Records
---
Amino acid sequence: MLQSAANIRAAALLTLAIQSRTLSVSAVMLSARQARRQESVYKEIEKHTSLIAGLSEAGAAKQKKKAVAAITALHAKELKNLDLLKKKIKEQQKALVARNKEEYKKLLAKATKPCRRMPAIAAYIKENAGSGVPLTDLSRQWSHVTADEKERYQQLADKIYEETLRIWTPEPKSPPNAYASFIQKHYPDGVSFAEASKQISAQWKALSDAEKEKHKPSAQELEKYAAEKKAWIEKRVQLYLDAKAKK
């Protein structure tokens, strides 16, 4: 009976050791010293397990008891070490998540950066970039380009910008808030901006909260905008990564 109980305990501890080994592998920053210490624990467990299995039913009960006590002590020690290891892994994972969030934030800022309209000089430099003339010389030469030529380069720059926008589409516009929606519907004709602002402000203040609520974007509009924004971000990030990979 004692041998059976001891063998069960030993089997359980070996399972624990296997779990510990698996957990250790997942900890990428686990030190070599800690790995060697755990390897020593596994060997101790295996040694005492072999000792228990080799004792007969009528064998030395004292030796069995001593072996079981040794395994129990190792068990408690290893559980404590496993708890410490789990904490270290959790801390490492939290740090990794934080780093990943920061990296994604930087990626998002670059990928969703608005496309700026290209000036004429940029089109001029782009067209002559392969001529072998240094960039500083091209910039100086620009001052000698005629007005007609500058106009041609501006048209070229506008064309490049339009082509860019077809691929790098602008961010979807969010639905107007309640006040902006009210302005769109009630903007008076034939008056100055100052007078129009004054009239609209007075009309808005005269509305009840319930009436103002009616001008807020609907749930469907907000859901549609959220879906469009999400799809736009995913597309822009992929375009940015593809463009970066080609460089």
---
Amino acid sequence: MALVNNMDVSVMRLKKRAARFQDHVDKVRQQREKATELLQGFDTVIEQLKQIRIPGPLLAYSRGQSDRASHSDLSLYAWISASDPQHSLQDLVEQVKEQITNFGQSDAMSTMHSIEKVVELSKDVNSREIKGINKRLTDLDHHLRRAEERDKAINAHTSKIVETPSHIDQSALEELISEHRYLMSQIYAELRELRVICNRFYASKVEVLGILRTRLNSWIVRVYDRLFHAHNEVLVFEEKFTGLKQRLNLVRQIKEAPMMYATAVSEVVRRRTFHKEFVAWHSLHVDKCTALSDEESQIRAQFSAKMEKHFLRVLFHGLFDALPMFYVKSLPKFDESLGPIDIDHLRELRAASFFKIYVFLP
């Protein structure tokens, strides 16, 4: 029963996983369409990546190195390819195409069929219920109880023999011997009966074990084999699906790389300009706010000094509030790690009309 219960739990888990599997199958169709769209014009993207120059100082800065002069310029294509020297970006495209091809509808249908077959086989009523097993188990219990009764009878006869008084006269000796002989004959009879019962119990037990072994070798073993096979199929599909998603995400990022790089350079230049103008504006703002705050605070302090000494203060107790701080005197540091990019690099990107990267720039 423990094996059957464990099998039922495993089948239930597989059914829940089958629902997620079907969801993955539907998403594979969507990923296939997305892959077709992503791979279109990828050769053009590669050419763009080769034409985009990453300044050496930016490379050194990104690696946390202070000696920026020791790094030479590098194309964006070479920088991306350096993360996996064993494979080119073209290899990535081929891998995606191969994975899309390997996700055949027949594989998904075969896996779903395996899952359905496991569920169907596990519900086989004729296999789950062993006909006559309850009667055989009852017979085993009956034999066991009879053996216990014989054991109690033997112990009772033995106790009577052991309880013989230590001092007995000659006249009662023959009667005692006769009684002991009778008790021994009863013990031998009980032992013979116990032997018969044990033989029957052993035979019944062997029969039950044989039935269970036959059932295990047929139904339960087949269910567990199919369960293991279906689980592996789902696992392989999920791993392939995860790998496909990761590669498609990488393809998407690579395809967006020219736009993202140009946009990031533009944003660095914009933020550096904004930082300079904002700091100047804030400095002027602080000066004006400080003057206003000092003037207002002085007026309030002078009035409070007069009012607090007069009995009319009880009527105007709300006139003693101080002016709160309403501006930031010093700004926290921000936009100080933008990297060594200047307007000249942005102009260079805008001038790269051979692949029209200027359409990405504001």
---
Amino acid sequence: MDLKTGRLLWPSLSTPRVVPQSLSGDVHCDVIIIGAGVSGAMLACRLADVGVEAVVVDRRGVAEGSTPASTALIQYEIDTTLIDLSKMHGLDSAQRAYRASYEALDELTDLVAQHDIDCGLHRTGSVFLARRDKDAAGFAEEAAARRAIGIDASVLSRGELMERFDIDRPAAIYSPAAMQLDPFKLTHGLLAAAVARGVKVFAADVTPHELGDARQTLVSNEGVKLTCRHLIIAMGYETPETFARLRKLCQIKSTYALASQPLAVASAWPERALIWESADPYFYARQTDDNRVLIGGEDENTADPQKRDALIGRKIKLLLKMFAELRPGVTIEPEFAWAGTFAETADGLPFIGCDKQWPGCHFALGYGGNGITFSVLAAGIIRDAILGKTNERAGLFRFDR
């Protein structure tokens, strides 16, 4: 699958730390992870930390799929509001899903600190804007529902929003719990930590050959055989191409993003908070360590790379127009622009764990707007499953929920 097109920001800012080996002979190990993006790296690091023998394989290399196209707004907010998720899955499950996503921010912070990963991780706030008056109708109820489970959230009026963030919108939900980072550096940092603990990373295009309860066999394009007890699928948005039954569980879409040239002003908006809004398709923005504005959105319901790429020019103009309306006093010039493929689920939650058709495969499908947050959850759930431990979060993200 063609996952992205354009000039990407993150790979231009750093040098890769992990270079995969060539796969020259058969491999036998406890765990094989297909995918060397942020999900695969997170899993490799978590497994290495508990002494599990693991191998990572990816036909592209490290962080060369959809990961470098991420804008890396790290939030606990799920694409579906807590109120709406409660209607879909019941109050208890919805609350637990939101709490798990919220707690994942601290878990990611701890993991980055534990391994001293330089990835530009910074704590910041999140401002969820109402584009129209009617969009703010449920904000008070939503903020109250989050506070009821210990998540700080408050509603800002138009006046408060203008005073604090110099943004003119009808209202916003403000959450102090959010983060931003460089996903390319994060992925390489996690894999570097895993490699230091014995994980091997190979550049190889592998295909599942025989998948059973206790033994999984893969074959590379060159005929090399790989066997393991546990196979982890961290292939991101390409997964349904190999596991066709999963196609009905998600919708593949296209999204667009740009990064400006570094600004001369100290900050494009106060507090350098993450900004996103209620419109569909929605608009989101953040700032970077080198003082760029990073904008994304204008999603399209297409997985066709030709149709996706043909829209890049028009979509970038629309994103610039939306930013100019949001921050009329700030002029930005795009230096990087790209289009990418992503996936959504009906309820905004990821799919994590084993499917009954493939009992020896553990899937880490962090679909939705919170892919990196969901990768943290997947790493913990799948690690515990491999160790034979119960994880109370596992049921929230199972395939048959």
